[in-house]
Amino acid sequence: MKKILLALALGAALPALAQEPAQAQAQAQTQAPSAAAFTIAPELREPQLSPDGKQLAALVRQNGKQAVVLRDLAVQPPQYRPVFTTQDAELSLRSLRWLDGERLLLGVRDGRPMRRSDLSQDALMVIWPAKGESINLYSGAGAAVRWNNQRAGLVDSAHTDANFVLLMGADPRLKGHEWGVYRIDTRNAQRTRVAAGVYGAMRYWADAQGQVRMLLRRDGERMQLLHRSDSANAWQPLREWPAHQQTPWFALGFGEQAHEFYVRRADQVLRLDLRQAPDQAGEPVAQNPALLNVQSLLRAPDGARVLGASAPGLSYYWDAGAAAQAKGLAERLQGQTVELQQWLGSHYLAASSREDSPTRYWLGQPEAKRFELLAEGRPGLRDLPQIERERLNPAGAGPLLLRRLKGSAPAPLIWCMDCTLEDSDSGDTAFNPLMAFLVSRGFAVATPQAANSGSAWARGLLPWADGQIPRVLAALKALRQHPWVLDQAPVLIGRELGAYLALRLAPALTDQGGVKAVVAIGVMTDLTAQLARLDDARFTDATRDRFRKLLGNSDAADLRAGSPIHHTAQMPARLLIVHGERNGNVEPNQAKALAEALRTAGRQPQLLLLPGANHDISDGPERRHVLEAIENLIKP
User: Residues of the signal sequence (predicted)?
Assistant: First the structure.
């Protein structure tokens, strides 16, 4: 881990964070925002209220560096004071939490992956903003616990207090780097493994006493919600379902008692009694159509109430002790995705977003039905045109979502698969820079809502793609008859496996008039070469395992037949290939080889290599280059 230095200032750009939206210049936009506006910095992230509710801590990005800033909520106009910053652009900050009124917990990640490991080099720190001091609880460069953000989720606010934190990771001191949940004392950095047998876990929950009791794990083609009743490492399945299907059970969290656990099924929130049989139906505590997509809950400090949030945009609470009808709290956020982050006595912190409304952070008071806008994550995009959406389910295609600018004329169609530029768990109503950018350019954008590329890792790439192609063909045929869409060849855009499917689809669309253009981001073009190169040191152990499951069940002839690089004569004339040169999943040579093969076949593809990008493309100049290249490719 590189040395991390305290900074005294962030520079002249910080005052932009202090502008209240109401005080900013309100100018009506006469044209779509530039590509640069969709990568605007600084972006405020992970705001956290201090225990006394008087200060707001947050992460910001500025000039390629990241920092922790503090705001005194009693001071107007708002001012953000830097208390910690990195001096290395490769380092990123995350998992900001208040431990008490004087100390902040902070995770620091080195973006350069370690060889032959699925774990990056990380540090977990405690900082004293008032003193300008910090200590390392551990550094991943030494013999210490390391975490993996994609699998483990770092440190959850429900699992921290003033004296310890819980996190999931692997300890290289143990044989086989066995995964577990570790308890780290914030006073002396002592660490103890408190739960084992958690490899493959995607999320875990601890009860009010800090005991890890629940686990969400992927086991091959199954998803499992597991429970253990005591400190033993024996996990008992509570619910199971196929991994490639939409989740029927959404785990929310523990109630006031250690035996109470909340789950959601459809529009019902159910309370499970963990002392009863695993196959219990559960006790309904709230039912409302607006709870259909609730994904989080917070327990009130007095334990009397539980607060949840729903994708349609209303926040709810219900009594934890008795069944009660959900009650709306935040009507002004209707239509937005709401994520609840903290609950401190009479108020709580929430984040809201919508496809045409980037993240905003609110201070809410449930009883008063009052919300105060604290900050905006992307103040430069507050005036995006409104996006309207329609859910469709054409015969043979499965459910899909169609978007356009509200009230606009019929528009050219873009079919987007895995349509993000980064790994994200955001729902389809949350702000997506690429989606908002495409719609702002006057396109109708459609995305599939079922059987996405996540199921390919369980079923195998070729069986998954063979099953998806007829579904997409049926969807595109139906969409060209939709009143929002012009009856003309569509644009196909995909990332990773979605990009692979786009290249496979292009030849299959010949009978429907072909495609206008294809954008392939981080695409795998030669399946045989990908499988043969997995022993290269650039790949992590976990990446090798995943790709061998993805490709290893197909024979050599099928891998060749399924490789886009061998079908260049059928590729469209307009083709943009985007690849990060630090991609840890697919080598840049795959993109270069496809571009060369296309030129040999008489095509003129555009190849955009991004020196600093991995398999995702974070905010900043690289994302701007991608958006500008897409716009140049697909414009009339």
Answer: 1-18
